[in-house]
Write a structure and sequence with these properties.
The protein is 42% helix and 26% strand. By secondary structure, it is α+β, with helices and mostly antiparallel strands. A hairpin with a 5-residue loop joins strand 2 and strand 3. The protein starts with 8 loop residues before the first helix and ends with a helix.
């Protein structure tokens, strides 16, 4: 994705101290050759992974709202995301598909991916991620409805706990006409399979 690292050095140093302590607590030596730079690398990584806290998704969305006379469903599907489970601080990842019915306005397509990234780059649960994307778009521009489908795989279920390797979770949220008209939700699901 090519992100530019621009971290506050004091913050990186503070977080790195905590990673060093964690390494000691699990029985490692943070001074051994392979781990000497790990606390700083991990500090920079966690700051990147949680960069969504330092951006305003509504501002991101409103940077690219345009006039649009159409009234048919717009769908962007399979936006990949990577996030961290707020319960175990382990990764979960997957794809988000978004549909909306324009009401005089449309949003730049890349902004949909940026909004997904913004919410995914926080400590999260998939249910909240899905809802946050849906309701932010409802707030950002006039629509006749928004629908969001998210499918994710969770390492907290795959590498610990129940260790179910083939499990996946799908979550939905929707507003407006999608909430009132089941046939519209069915059309969205059918179009996702195109």
């Amino acid at each position: 994705m090519g992100r530019i690292e621009n971290h506050n050095e004091d913050l990186v140093a503070q977080i790195a101290e905590h990673y060093s302590a964690i390494l000691r607590l699990v029985g490692e030596d943070p001074e051994r050759e392979g781990l000497k730079k790990t606390p700083v690398r991990a500090a920079k990584a966690i700051l990147d992974i949680t960069s969504g806290y330092r951006n305003d998704p509504l501002k991101i969305a409103r940077q690219a709202i345009f006039e649009h006379g159409g009234s048919q469903m717009v769908i962007v599907k399979d936006i990949e995301f990577y996030s961290m489970c707020e319960h175990h601080i382990l990764p979960f990842f997957g794809r988000v598909s978004i549909g909306y019915i324009p009401k005089g306005k449309m949003i730049g397509l890349s902004k949909l991916a940026r909004i997904v990234d913004n919410f995914a780059r926080r400590l999260q649960v998939q249910e909240h991620l899905t809802s946050q994307v849906c309701h932010l778009l409802e707030e950002a521009m006039p629509t006749d409805g928004v629908i969001v489908c998210c499918t994710g795989e969770h390492l907290c279920m795959k590498m610990r706990g129940v260790e179910k390797q083939d499990s996946a979770t799908t979550t939905f949220d929707y507003t407006g006409r999608f909430a009132k008209e089941p046939t519209l939700r069915e059309e969205f699901m059918r179009l996702l399979k195109c």
